[in-house]
Specification:
Rossmann fold; binds glycinamide ribonucleotide; 7-stranded mixed beta sheet; 6 helices; alpha/beta; 3-stranded antiparallel beta sheet
């Protein structure tokens, strides 16, 4: 069977790439991006932050940075399809070049994934394809792995199955089994924030190409 044609996502010119970031929790990855975009050489700006719940530190961080925010809670909609439609419409209003899901703990719907195909960047706290889903850190720990880490990847219609862009490795210590993975997750997040900032900046400045599940960013 012939391979699918390569998809190209050129850098947006002129001016910084437009980022919409989606969060559900403490938002330390969002904060790392907020800090990075302060440098004009980074090549991107955050134009809005969305969430699936109120009262989270991630939204506070966005507010402090003076960024517009929006919240769509699944329970406020008739069904998941309506929620998907509303989230897609809110993000589309900002005409983003890239959507970054940084600790967004909901599976994106089909309409959203189709609308921003190839331009949704997710960060996951495990070395995919191992340990996808909402419990990447504790699932890896329970399995007994000796190294784990984080994966920055593009989102497709599956759960954490999209093309991988970059990964960072973190060693698991015996002590990690004592606290349910909290310290391990913090060590992963230290690596993850740097990796996410690096990848998003490169995508923004250079564009990317997806070919046969591989993501190529021009050097
Ligand atoms: C991050 O470790 C991210 O990988 C994880 O949530 C954390 C968010 O931290 N996401 C998932 O587990 C998604 N499956 P933050 O709110 O401090 O950025």
């Amino acid at each position: 069977m012939a391979a699918a044609p390569a998809q190209h996502f050129p850098p947006r010119t002129p001016g910084p790439a437009r980022l919409v970031v989606l969060v559900s929790g403490s938002g330390t990855n969002l904060q790392a991006l907020i800090d990075a975009v302060a440098d004009p050489a980074y090549g991107a700006g955050i134009i809005a932050v969305g969430a699936d719940r109120d009262g989270i530190a991630g939204l506070e961080r966005a507010g402090k940075a003076g960024l517009p925010t929006f919240v769509h809670r699944v329970k406020d909609f008739r069904d998941r399809a309506d929620w998907d439609r509303a989230l897609t419409a809110s993000v589309a209003e900002y005409q983003p070049d890239l959507v970054v899901t940084a600790g967004f703990m909901k599976i994106l719907g089909p309409e959203f994934v189709a609308a921003f195909a190839g331009r949704i960047v997710n960060t996951h706290p495990a070395l995919l394809p191992s340990f996808p889903g909402a419990h990447g850190v504790t699932d890896a720990l329970a399995y007994g792995v000796r190294v784990t880490g984080c994966t920055v990847h593009l989102v497709d219609s599956g759960v954490d199955t999209g093309p991988i862009i970059a990964q960072g490795v973190v060693e698991v210590t015996d002590a990690d089994h004592a606290d349910g993975g909290e310290a391990l997750h913090e060590r992963i997040k230290t690596v993850e924030r740097k990796l996410l900032v690096d990848v998003v900046g490169r995508l923004a400045r250079e564009g990317h190409r997806i070919e046969d599940r591989k993501v190529w960013i021009p050097a």
